[in-house]
Each structure stands twice: as structure tokens, then as C-alpha cells.
Design goal:
single chain, 623 residues, mainly alpha, Amino acid/polyamine transporter I, 2 strands, disordered N terminus, disordered C terminus, Na/ntran_symport, transmembrane, metal ion binding
Length: 623
């Protein structure tokens, strides 16, 4: 049984035959083997990379909507409880796990081989995210380029992509010019009416088809934007994290300047106060609704990017004795502050939009693409200097998306390089990164066809949704705390930090985080609702089957790999169990060269297999 009662004692005391890392780690020499593998240029580079990774589009387009949906300021109570109990502790756990072993998100699991499926599942989810997340950047590039004009094209219904159901504000009072359009709209607007920005989004940008069964042609303009986004991503990481650490200073900090400018502009607009009040006004009765708690916890897991292995890889480039506890607290504060700050920005502008359209704020609130590519473009069109503000906003979206994208991609690249050192992928990093970018770009072409939005929604709602993410995060906590051992991990961390961080952390890792993860996972499965796009399109049954396959392709690795390694290892069942639950690698030793570390981390499968086979044969011969 796991006991947390005796954690706060001398970290040099061994437990379960585990030797604390402090006993065999010396002071870092000048040549510590990091040259070949690379590392962060300094501590701040790592912090900025984590901020860029954690602070993304979800802070701008999902958090404000969830606040509105769940009682405004009331939502902050379960949000911060989830943050303290799960978000920050799991973030810290993943960073320190990578820092402890100085290797990527696949190889770390040789420390408890039977649960290596967790690493493969995380890698699979990260691959899916990398494929579709960058498509958002492609859309933002499209809008950015369309903003370089004196008149934004989504402001009225003059474009050749519009139809008679387009609600043109400029024609509402012009009976002579707009009689046919406005008369038809009066009769049909509640069911069929669309704003110019919605028609620009669906008919001009996406050229959306009638459903997922009609894939259609590739949108070549979006193809060019997608290629541009991938090229920028490639050149941000192709030389390693030392270069990436310098780039994120710009991509992570610039959005704050833009958000501040947008807030200053937003609060001066008519109706802004109404929007902000709507954002923060509490509805205390919502705390009794379980949905607010599941939404808060799910947002925390999404926002902090846990469960996909990227933080393990980013942490592996830290120096062994880096104080990542301080880094984690800083990133946690900045991430939550950004979400709240962005909420004020977005709702000040939505309040202005509601005033302009003479509707309630609730009628213009949306989440995801609906907020970013429909509601906000409508609002910015009515601002003085609309083109400039549009350029600023979509440039911010691109930077928020790209720094998250190349941190996720870095996690994939690092995992592959550390898992297969014999392939010398690190010496051919540029080719390796390029190959991964090209492969995922090709897969991502499905998302920029005329039916691509339906594919995008499937990937987002199933492949990287809360269901697989919570499942993997829960098993990750179980593997580290109940497999490798929370006392062992806690002592390793105390050896790296040089002090005991407090019993709060192991309690969260071993109890609160897995309980919340699995609890919300099962609630999400029970409360499953049929997949749809918008308000009217529901996916056909075979489309939902594809979605569940996307979810299961990652989730199944945890059990399937455990069964595979358990039943393919030689020897009796007890021998196999001993093998799959015995660490094949140990904590990083800074006195070794990179090649020695890489070779020592190769699974000793051949040697162990031979020993077990000899033991089994001798046993059978005696019988």
C-alpha cells in the first residue's frame, strides 16, 4: 500500500530498493554531455517556452465562453480549485519527470516498462493535435492577408460569395436598394439568416460542403497559408531548443502587447461595460451544477497541455538540478492571468458588438472558431481603423498558435530522437524535423478541403478531446505514483531541487489528479452527446465511428502495450511480471557523456531475454 505519511523525512533514506539520485549525481562539470543533445540557453528560455506552450488559442476563444456559460465570475471558483489540485501539480510532475531522466516522452517510460503505453498514447494524441491545430494558424493567415485593404471584405454582402440570406446591415434601412434582400430576411432570418462575417467564413474561407460525406476540393488559398505556417514552424525548431528558446521570447510576449492594446481600445467602445459585466457577473446557483466543475477541470487540462508528452520533452532539456518548482508556479500564474485578461478583452468587444446590433450580449457569445472568425471580425469591422485592428488581432492569433504548435512538435521530435539513438536522428535533425512536418502537412490537407471543417471538428472533438486526454493523464499519474512509486519520485525531486517541496505535491499526484481525471472521464463518457457542427448539422453514424476510432487509437495503447510486453517476454508469468515492472533506465547522471547515456538507456531486452530463457530452460530440464 502507498503511504504518504512518511514522505517528509531525509531524502537520502532509500525505499523499495530505490537509490536516491543524490547518492550518485555529482556536481555538473563543464562538459556534461549536453552539447550533443542540446539544452536551454538559460532558465528564462525554458520559462518562456512553457508560457508559449501553455498560453494558446484556448485562453482567447474557450475560457471567456466557459465563464459566460457557467455563471461568469462563479466559474473562477471551480477553475482555481482545479488549477491547484490538478493543473499545476501535473504540470510540475511532467516537467520534473523529463528533467529527472533527461529524455523524451517515450523513453522515460522504460523506468516502468509495462506502462510505456502511456508514452505511446501521449505521442499519438500530440501527433493528432499537431496535424489539425496548425490549420487554425492557416485560417488566421487567410484573415490576416484579407485585412490588408481599406475595406474589410466581411463587413457587407457585396462579395460574390454571399447569397440572399446574407443579412447586410448597410441595406437594412435602404428599402429601394435592399427590398428584396431585407424582405426575404425578415421572413427567414431566424432560420436561415446569416451575418456577412459568417458567410465570409463559411462560403469564402472554407467554401464548406454540405457534410463530411462530401470532401470536395482542396482550398488552394488555404493550402498556401498552411504551407506558410508549417515553414515558420520548421524554422522555429529545426536547430534545437536553444534556438527555439530565443524565438519564444517574441512569440510568447508579443501577444500580451496586442491584448493590452485591444483592451485599451475595447473599454473605450460603446457597450463595453455591458460586456464586461456580463463576463464577471456571478451566478452562485451554478456551483451546484456538476457541468461547471467538469468544464473547469477539462479547461485546466487543455490549457496546461498535460498528458501529451510535450512537457516531459521540454523539461528534459533543463539542467538536472534546475529549480522547476519556481518555473511551474510562474507559468501557472501567467497562464491563468492571461485567460482572465483575455476574457476582459473579448467581452469588452462583444459588448460593443451587441450594442451595435441592438441585441443582448448572450446572442453574440460563441466559442472556438465561431468566436474568432465570426463574432470578432464582425465587431472589428465597426471599429474606427478596422483594418489595422484586424491585422493586429489575427497576427496575435498566429503567434499564439505557432508557439504552442512548435512546442508540441518539439515534443514529438525529441521523443523520436531519444527513443531511437541508433538511427542518429539527432545528427540529422533538420531532415528529421522536415520529414515530420511534411508528413503531418500531408495528413492535414484533409482539413483544408471543402469538407475539411467536418474533419477538423472530428479531430478536435474526439482525437484530442477531453476523453482521451483525461484518460491518458489519469494513467500517467497512476504509472508514476503507483507504479514507479510516489515516494521514489518525491525523493528524486527533492534531490534535484535540494529541498523537500512539501507533501501537497505527492498527495495531488497520487490522489487528487488521477481521481479528477478518471472522474471527469467517466462523466464525459456517460454524458456523451452526438457530434455536430454548428446548430443544424449532425454527423452520420459512420462519421461518429471515425471519431471514436480517433479517440481509441491513442487510448488503447495503455492496455494493448501492457498485454503485449507482458505476454511476449520469456519465462514464467512471475518472471515476466518482474521484468515489465523493473526499471530499465535510471535517473540521469550528469557525469556521463551523451553517447554513454544514450547507450545505457537502450532497453536490455536481448540480455534479459537470454537470461530468462536460460533460467526457464534450466527449470524445465530439472523437471
Amino acid at each position: 500500500m502507498l503511504s504518504l505519511s512518511n514522505l517528509n523525512h531525509d531524502p537520502t533514506i532509500t525505499a523499495n530498493n530505490h537509490q536516491p539520485v543524490e547518492n550518485h549525481v555529482k556536481e555538473t562539470p563543464k562538459d556534461d554531455g549536453r552539447t550533443e543533445r542540446g539544452g536551454w540557453g538559460n532558465k528564462m528560455d525554458f520559462i518562456m517556452a512553457c508560457i508559449g506552450y501553455a498560453v494558446g488559442l484556448g485562453n482567447v476563444w474557450r475560457f471567456p465562453y466557459l465563464c459566460h456559460k457557467n455563471g461568469g465570475g462563479t466559474f473562477l471558483i471551480p477553475y482555481f480549485i482545479s488549477l491547484v489540485a490538478c493543473g499545476v501539480p501535473v504540470f510540475f510532475m511532467e516537467v520534473m519527470f523529463g528533467q529527472l531522466l533527461q529524455t523524451g516522452g517515450l523513453t522515460v517510460w522504460y523506468i516502468y516498462p509495462i506502462m510505456k503505453g502511456v508514452g505511446i498514447a501521449s505521442f499519438t494524441i500530440a501527433s493528432i493535435v499537431c496535424t489539425y491545430y496548425i490549420v487554425i494558424c492557416a485560417w488566421a493567415f487567410f484573415y490576416l492577408f484579407a485585412s490588408f485593404t481599406s475595406k474589410l471584405p466581411w463587413g457587407d454582402c457585396s462579395g460574390d460569395w454571399t447569397d440572399i440570406y446574407c443579412n447586410d446591415p448597410s441595406l437594412q434601412d435602404n428599402v429601394t436598394e435592399g427590398f428584396f434582400r431585407t424582405t426575404n430576411l425578415t421572413l427567414l432570418e431566424k432560420k436561415f439568416g446569416q451575418s456577412p462575417s459568417q458567410q465570409f467564413w463559411e462560403k469564402r474561407v472554407l467554401a464548406i460542403s454540405s457534410g463530411i460525406d462530401e470532401v470536395g476540393d482542396i482550398r488552394w488559398e488555404l493550402f498556401g497559408c498552411l504551407i506558410l505556417a508549417w515553414i515558420l514552424t520548421y524554422f522555429c525548431i529545426w536547430k534545437g531548443v536553444k534556438q527555439t528558446g530565443k524565438i519564444v521570447w517574441f512569440t510568447a510576449l508579443m501577444p500580451y502587447g496586442i491584448l493590452l492594446a485591444l483592451l485599451i481600445r475595447g473599454v473605450t467602445l460603446e457597450g463595453a461595460v455591458d460586456g464586461i459585466i456580463y463576463f464577471i457577473k456571478p451566478d452562485w446557483g451554478r456551483l451546484l451544477n456538476p457541468t461547471i466543475w467538469t468544464d473547469a477541470a477539462t479547461q485546466i487540462f487543455f490549457s496546461y497541455g498535460v498528458g501529451i508528452g510535450s512537457l516531459i520533452s521540454l523539461g528534459s532539456y533543463n539542467r538536472f538540478k534546475n529549480n522547476s518548482l519556481i518555473d511551474t508556479v510562474v507559468v501557472g500564474f501567467v497562464n491563468s492571468f492571461t485567460s482572465i485578461f483575455a476574457g476582459f478583452v473579448i467581452f469588452s468587444i462583444l459588448g460593443f458588438m451587441a450594442k451595435q446590433l441592438d441585441v443582448d450580449v448572450s446572442d453574440v457569445v460563441d466559442e472556438g472558431p465561431g468566436l474568432t472568425f465570426i463574432a470578432y471580425p464582425t465587431a472589428v469591422y465597426n471599429m474606427p481603423g478596422s483594418s489595422a485592428w484586424s491585422i493586429i488581432f489575427f497576427a496575435m492569433l498566429i503567434m499564439l498558435g505557432l508557439d504552442s504548435q512548435f512546442c508540441i512538435l518539439e515534443g514529438l521530435v525529441t521523443s523520436l530522437m531519444d527513443e531511437f539513438p541508433s538511427l542518429n536522428l539527432r545528427k540529422h535533425r533538420a531532415l528529421c524535423v522536415g520529414g515530420i512536418c511534411i508528413f503531418q502537412c500531408v495528413i492535414g490537407l484533409l482539413c483544408i478541403t471543402q469538407g475539411g471543417m467536418y474533419v477538423f471538428q472530428l479531430m478536435d472533438s474526439y482525437g484530442a478531446s477531453g476523453i482521451p486526454l483525461l484518460w491518458v493523464a489519469g494513467w500517467e499519474c497512476v504509472a508514476i505514483c503507483w507504479g514507479y512509486g510516489v515516494k521514489n519520485f518525491y525523493r528524486d525531486i527533492s534531490s534535484m531541487l535540494g529541498f523537500l517541496p512539501g507533501i501537497y505535491w505527492p498527495i495531488c499526484w497520487a490522489v487528487f489528479a488521477p481521481a479528477v481525471s478518471f472522474g471527469i472521464f467517466f462523466f464525459s463518457v456517460v454524458d456523451y452527446q452526438r457530434a455536430k457542427y454548428g446548430d443544424n448539422y449532425f454527423y452520420p453514424p459512420w462519421g461518429e465511428v471515425i471519431g471514436w476510432c480517433l479517440a481509441l487509437v491513442s487510448m488503447q495503447w495503455i492496455f494493448s502495450y501492457a498485454l503485449y510486453i507482458l505476454f511476449t517476454s520469456p519465462g514464467s508469468f512471475s518472471q515476466r511480471w518482474t521484468y515489465v515492472t523493473t526499471a530499465q533506465i535510471g535517473p540521469y547522471e550528469e557525469t556521463k557523456s551523451f553517447e554513454e547515456i544514450a547507450m545505457s538507456r537502450q532497453p536490455k531486452i536481448d540480455t534479459i531475454t537470454k537470461e530468462l530463457s536460460q533460467y526457464a530452460n534450466s527449470t524445465y530440464s530439472h523437471e
